[in-house]
Automatic annotation (TrEMBL):
Lineage: Bacteria, Pseudomonadati, Pseudomonadota, Alphaproteobacteria, Hyphomicrobiales
UniProt protein name: Cytochrome c domain-containing protein
Keywords: Signal
Extent of the signal sequence: 1-24
C-alpha cells in the first residue's frame, strides 16, 4: 500500500515540475515500477517482504535481447501480453536438459546478457483477460526509446526468441520439480567461483579442505525462483478459468503457472516464500493442502484487476525453529506433493558437495526423515529412516524423539572434520552441474 502512495506522490511531482522541452514527450510516460523491496523487511515484516518481491519479480521485463532481468517501467504489472522479470533470468535447466547455466560437458556459461543458448517460449499475461490495467494502456504506454520496447512489441516485429522450456517446469502429477531461474548476482557468483560443473564443485570442495577457499556464501543480492506449471487441459481446469492463470502457449497447449517459490539472500540462511494460484486445490487430483503460514500483509492493491490477483501467498520461512524450539514448516500442495510435512530451509540445508563426490548422510532423504519418517512416495518408512538418520532419533514406537528444524552438525562431518560443504542452500548446483569434458579455465584450478 505504501508503495502505491509513494508512486502516486512521485507522479504528482513529475506532472507539476516544469520539464525541459527535450523531455516534453516523456511527460505522459508513467513509471509503473514499484519501489525496490527493503532488505530489513525480510525479518521484520516477512509477508510484506514476500509481496514486495512478488511485485518486483512479476513486473513486465524488457526483452532479454536488450537486457536480462530489467523491469520495463513503462508497463504496469499484469499488462496483458507481458512477460515477467524472473523469466528473463537464466534457466538452470534440469537433469538431461542443459538450460543456460550448467552446460553440457561442463563448459563455462557465457556472460549474463548473452542469449545464444536457446531458451523456449516464455509465459505471458493472458491477452483476453479483462483487466484494470487495460484501462490505461493508451497513449501513455507508447515506447519512448528502443530500450523500453517491451517483449510483446518485439514479438510483433518478429525479433523475440521463445523462452519457455516445457518439461522443465511442468508439474507432472508426481510432486515434480519445476523450472528454476537464477538472477544475475547468483549467476555471476557461480561463474566467478567456477561452480558451474561437477568437477568445478569437487575442486572447490577440495580447495576448501586445503584452506585455499572459504565456505560458499552467495552475495546479498542473490535470488532464485522455482516455478511449477500445469497443463490446463490435462488438469481439467474449466476453460473459463484459464485466464486466471499467468500462462504460456507451447505447441498448441496452454500451461498455467500454479506455484512460484522464491528465495533471496536477504538474510544469511535465505528468505523463503511460496505463492500459488488461489484455486490450486480445486483442479485435477485431490491434493493434500500445503503447510502454510498466515499472510499478515495482504495482497497489494496494485495487483487488483490483473491476472496476479488470482495468486495468494502460501507463506514465508526465515528460521529453522520457532522461539519455542518447534520446527518451522512451509510447503506447497503441488510442488511438495507427497511430502507436505516439510521445511524448505531444512531440506535445502542438505545441498552439499565434497572433494571426492561422495554424498553426505545429509541428503534430502535425511531432511525428510527428520520431519516425516513415512513418505511412501519416496520409499521412506521409519525402518529405512532409522538407517539413514540413526536409531537414537526414534522412540520405540517409531515416533521421532523430536522433530528437527535445524540440521545436525554430524551430517556434514567425516573423521571429525567438516567435509561436506554446503552450496549455501542451493540445490541446483549439486543436482544440475555436468561432468567436465575439457580442461577448465586456468583461474578455476587452485
Ligand atoms: C525435500 C526437500 C525439499 C524441500 C522440502 C524443498 N525443496 Fe526446494 N528444491 C529441492 C531440490 C532437490 C531442488 C533442486 C531441483 C530443482 O532445481 O528442480 C530444489 C530447488 C528449489 C529452488 C531452485 C533453487 C535451487 O537452486 O535450489 C527453489 C527456489 C526452491 N527449491 C525453493 C523451495 C521453497 C520455497 C520450499 C518450501 C516451500 C522448498 N524449496 C522446499 C528440495 C527441496
Amino acid at each position: 500500500m505504501r508503495n502505491i502512495f509513494v508512486q502516486g506522490f512521485c507522479c504528482l511531482l513529475l506532472s507539476t515540475t516544469t520539464m525541459p522541452t527535450a523531455f516534453a514527450a516523456d511527460k505522459t510516460a508513467h513509471n509503473y515500477c514499484q519501489l525496490a523491496p527493503v532488505r530489513s523487511d525480510a525479518l521484520d515484516f516477512p509477508s510484506k517482504h514476500a509481496w514486495d518481491l512478488f511485485l518486483m519479480l512479476n513486473h513486465p521485463a524488457v526483452d532479454r535481447e536488450i537486457e536480462r532481468g530489467r523491469a520495463d517501467c513503462a508497463r504496469p504489472i499484469g499488462d496483458p501480453g507481458s512477460t515477467t522479470v524472473w523469466e528473463s533470468w537464466r534457466n538452470a535447466g534440469k537433469i538431461g536438459v542443459q538450460g543456460e547455466v550448467f552446460l553440457k560437458d561442463g563448459v563455462e556459461p557465457p556472460d549474463w546478457n548473452d542469449t545464444t543458448i536457446p531458451d523456449e517460449k516464455p509465459g505471458q499475461v493472458p491477452k483476453e483477460a479483462i483487466t484494470r490495467v487495460q484501462a490505461f494502456s493508451g497513449s501513455d504506454r507508447q515506447p519512448i526509446d528502443p530500450r523500453q520496447i517491451s517483449f510483446h512489441d518485439w514479438a510483433l516485429i518478429d525479433k523475440a526468441k521463445p523462452q519457455f522450456s516445457p518439461g522443465d517446469g511442468i508439474f507432472e502429477g508426481g510432486g515434480a520439480f519445476g523450472e528454476t531461474r537464477l538472477n544475475r548476482e547468483t549467476f555471476e557468483f557461480i561463474k566467478r567461483n567456477c561452480l558451474w560443473s561437477k568437477d568445478g564443485l569437487r575442486r572447490y570442495a577440495q580447495a576448501y579442505q586445503d584452506g585455499k577457499k572459504p565456505l560458499i556464501v552467495f552475495p546479498p543480492g542473490a535470488m532464485e525462483v522455482k516455478a511449477a506449471w500445469i497443463d490446463l487441459e490435462r488438469e481439467k481446469v474449466p476453460k473459463e478459468k484459464w485466464n486466471t492463470f499467468y500462462s504460456a502457449d507451447y505447441k498448441g497447449k496452454k500451461y498455467g503457472l500454479m506455484t512460484l517459490h522464491v528465495i533471496t539472500k536477504d538474510i544469511p540462511n535465505w528468505f523463503w516464500a511460496s505463492f500459488h494460484h488461489k484455486d490450486q486445490l480445486s483442479f485435477g487430483d485431490k491434493l493434500e493442502p500445503g503447510i502454510e503460514t498466515p499472510d499478515e500483509f495482504g495482497q497489494p492493491s496494485a495487483l487488483k484487476g490483473t491476472v496476479w490477483e488470482n495468486y495468494v501467498l502460501g507463506g514465508t520461512q526465515i528460521e529453522f525453529d520457532s522461539s519455542t524450539g518447534a520446527p518451522t514448516m512451509l510447503s506447497d500442495a503441488h510442488v511438495e506433493k507427497g511430502f507436505v510435512r516439510s521445511s524448505c530451509i531444512t531440506c535445502h540445508s542438505t545441498a552439499v558437495i565434497s572433494p571426492d563426490d561422495t554424498k553426505s548422510v545429509a541428503s534430502q532423504a535425511a531432511a525428510m526423515c527428520i520431519l516425516t519418517p513415512t513418505v511412501p512416495e519416496f520409499d521412506l518408512d521409519p525402518k529405512g529412516c532409522r538407517e539413514i538418520i540413526g536409531d537414537k532419533y526414534f522412540m520405540k514406537d517409531d515416533k521421532l524423539v523430536a522433530e528437527r528444524g535445524a540440521p545436525l552438525p554430524e551430517w556434514y562431518m567425516k573423521n571429525d572434520k567438516l567435509f561436506f560443504i554446503q552450496t549455501d542452500f542451493l540445490y541446483s548446483l549439486p543436482q544440475r552441474a555436468q561432468k567436465e569434458m575439457n580442461s577448465p579455465p586456468k583461474r578455476c584450478v587452485w
